[in-house]
Amino acid sequence: MATLQKFKLIYFVPSAAVAATKSAIFAAGAGRYPGPGDYTEAAFITKGTGQFRAGDAANPHIGKVGELEEFEELRVETICIGRDVAVKAVEELKKAHPYEEVAYEVIKCEDI
Questions:
Q1: Residue 87's pLDDT band (cuts 50, 70, 90)
Q2: Coil, strand or helix at 35
Q3: Helix (H), strand (E) counts: the chain
Q4: Nearest residue to 27 (alpha-carbon basis) of 78, 74, 75, 61
Q5: CATH number at residue 26
Q6: Residue 2 pLDDT level (bands cut at 50, 70, 90)
Q7: Are the C-beta atoms of 7 and 79 separated by less than 8 Å?
């Protein structure tokens, strides 16, 4: 029996939208650990400062075009078991997230 590949999904979100984005990714299957503990909705969240300067064609959720913006964001990390879960979690994240361009990463994990 083949073991499903593990992925780590990491994204950045304003605190007002963290609940909606977590609900969306967890409904897609993210945050589930395999094994007898049946853990679900597992995530690690840290606060930090994000920044950007929106270009002329942008429609930023926060700030103004052409101005450097710095603001508090949350970094959310969770696991996705199977590539299909990772893909679906990213799709749902993009739907639930308020930003025009969602900042996220998907990292393929190795079992050691």
A1: very high
A2: coil
A3: 2, 4
A4: 78
A5: 3.30.70.120
A6: low
A7: yes
Tell whether pTM > 0.85: yes
pLDDT tens for residues 18-40? Answer: 999 999 999 999 999 888 889 99
pLDDT at 60: 86
How many Cβ atoms sit within 10 Å of the Cβ of residue 67?
10
The tokens for 58 are 């942008």
CA distance 49 to 78: 20
How far from the centroid of its chain's Cα atoms is residue 26's Cα? 10
Boundaries of domain holding 73 = 6-109
In this prediction, residues 73-77 reach a mean pLDDT of 98
For residue 1, tell me if it sits in a domain: no
Amino acid at 15: S
Q: How many domains does the chain have?
A: 1
